[in-house]
Amino acid sequence: MTTAILSALPEEQGGLMHALQQPEQLQHAGRIFWRGHLHGQPVVLALSGIGKVAAATTAAALAERFGVARMVFTGVAGGVGEGVQVGDVVVAQDYLQHDFDASPIFPRWEVPGYGRARMDCDAALNALLLEAARAYLADAGAHFVADLPNAARAPQVHHGLMASGDRFVSTAQESSALRAALLASDHDVLAVEMEGAAVAQVCRDYGLPFAAVRTISDRADDSAHVDFAHFVQNVASRYADHIVQRFVRML
Ligand code: ADE
């Protein structure tokens, strides 16, 4: 039962590469995949690329070529939900594509052919990721407070809807408009990023369990680009490394 572990950026893959045992590099579809073991579990580490199409190609390759049994996405996201702060962790309960719009033929955000806007993540994997994230932040969260802009409290773990789109959301106006429009249709989105919904859809097509854990790097507002660079360099890779390694040990 091989587990695929995807990230968008090399920095997000961070320490996992260093912990990989018996690493074997494979190239396919213009991507580099690393097969090996983490804590005795067979894994494939992959960079999804940035955006939904790149991520869908990577996910399809992992299903077809590598025969993985499940996929887990780890990386960063912009917090848009109330109380979702930089340094917090979000485990996705489900995903939608916030830039998907086939209305008025189909309801806004619904993906034609699926009869739904939201794609579920796997409940059992979510439970493990939540446990791993909570345990890690309980141990180490306080150490990160100094690295977090305006942190008034220790980092928290959230569980809920995540939204993907082919945009880096970088103004407060766009972020609040996006959140308000989704909320008006009962989609209470916690965070935005650019790949997860695509991987969730591919996993649904292949009948593979999928889960995602994202560290909040910015508030998807006017300073998102500043927070993002600082955060990915200093914090996100350590989070991903520790949370995913704890998760793999529970499999
Ligand atoms: N990933 C991290 N921050 C993001 C943002 N603000 N918009 C889209 N993807 C992100």
The strand line-up of the biggest sheet is 5-9-8-6-10
Q: What percent of residues adopt helix (DSSP H or I)?
A: 25-40%
CATH topology: Rossmann fold
Helical stretch tally: 6
End-to-end CA span: 10 Å
Total count of domains = 1
Give me the strand/helix succession: EHEEEHEEEHEHEHEH
Instruction: Write out the CATH superfamily name.
Output: Nucleoside phosphorylase domain
Average pLDDT number: 93
Shape: globular
CATH class: Alpha Beta
Question: In terms of per-residue confidence, which ranges show pLDDT below 50 for 5 or more consecutive residues?
Answer: none
Largest sheet, in brief, is: 5 strands, mixed, barrel
Protein name: adenosylhomocysteine nucleosidase
EC number: 3.2.2.9
Keywords: Amino-acid biosynthesis, Glycosidase, Hydrolase, Methionine biosynthesis
Pfam family, one: PNP_UDP_1
Q: What would you say this structure looks like, in words?
A:
With 251 residues, the chain is an alpha/beta fold. The protein has one domain (75-250): 3-Layer(aba) Sandwich (Rossmann fold), CATH 3.40.50.1580. Helices cover 38% and strands 28% of the residues. It has 6 helices and 10 strands; from the N terminus they run E-H-E-E-E-H-E-E-E-H-E-H-E-H-E-H. The protein has helices at residues 10-19, 52-64, 123-144, 172-184, 196-206, 224-250; strands at residues 3-7, 21-28, 31-38, 41-47, 70-79, 89-97, 119-120, 157-164, 189-193, 210-218. A 5-stranded mixed beta barrel has the order 5-9-8-6-10, surrounded by 4 helices. A hairpin with a 2-residue loop joins strand 3 and strand 4 (41-47). The longest helix is centred in the last third of the chain and has 27 residues, at 224-250. The site of adenine (ADE) has 14 residues, from strand 5, strand 9, strand 10 and helix 6. GO terms for molecular function: adenosylhomocysteine nucleosidase activity; methylthioadenosine nucleosidase activity. This is adenosylhomocysteine nucleosidase. One of its GO terms (cellular component) is cytosol. Pathway: Amino-acid biosynthesis; L-methionine biosynthesis via salvage pathway; S-methyl-5-thio-alpha-D-ribose 1-phosphate from S-methyl-5'-thioadenosine (hydrolase route): step 1/2. Its EC number is 3.2.2.9.
